[in-house]
Amino acid sequence: MQQIHDADKPINESREEKVLVKRLSGLTTIAVLIFAHVTAAQSNPIGYQALEHYQATSPDEGKIVKLVLAYQKAYNSYDAEAVLAVHLPGAMIKAETKGDWSEHLVTKEAYAGIIADKLATSKLYNFKLIFLTPEKITVQENTAESIVPFILYSISQDYWEKGIFNFEFRKTDSGWFISRNTSKILDLSYNP
Fold this sequence. Notes:
The chain has 192 residues and is an alpha+beta fold. The chain has a single domain (14-190), classed as Nuclear Transport Factor 2, Chain: A (Roll). 32% of the residues lie in helices and 36% in strands. It contains 5 helices and 8 strands. It has helices at 15-25, 29-37, 59-76, 80-85, 108-124; strands at 4-6, 87-97, 103-107, 128-131, 137-140, 143-154, 159-172, 175-190. Strands 1, 2, 3, 4, 5, 6, 7 and 8 form an 8-stranded mixed beta sheet that branches. The protein is globular.
């Protein structure tokens, strides 16, 4: 049985989210494509770095970065099981946005079919996801949160979007997992 919930958090942007929105809004189409081609470089012409270059300030931060990079790798390998594996059982994940722009969250278990379909389409059009360095990762004992900028693009489709993922994490006996995962597209370009 698929469980769908309205987002239970208000849609108030945090200071960190506002800063990221402002920084991302300055990226032009050319800058996004340049970044997509130079993600292996530690620095680039638009002032962003790929998440791989984030300098963790604690072991927990380092583990959280590795977790988000595992999500990126799974997405770019079009591996639905691996995407789901970085989430806690019962994790709440943004499934869609309704016509009134409200978010609908589903459990990890209900998200399995959605992500499989999404990744099949991404594979067909060769979409790639790049996570960028966040402003910060806030860790408090066994929970953490971070707003992580992203670029999703397909060179073959002349498509890109930029936005943010809002992650919440929980530490268990088995390590860190994503407990809540929502995203927001800030800008996109499609030139068929």
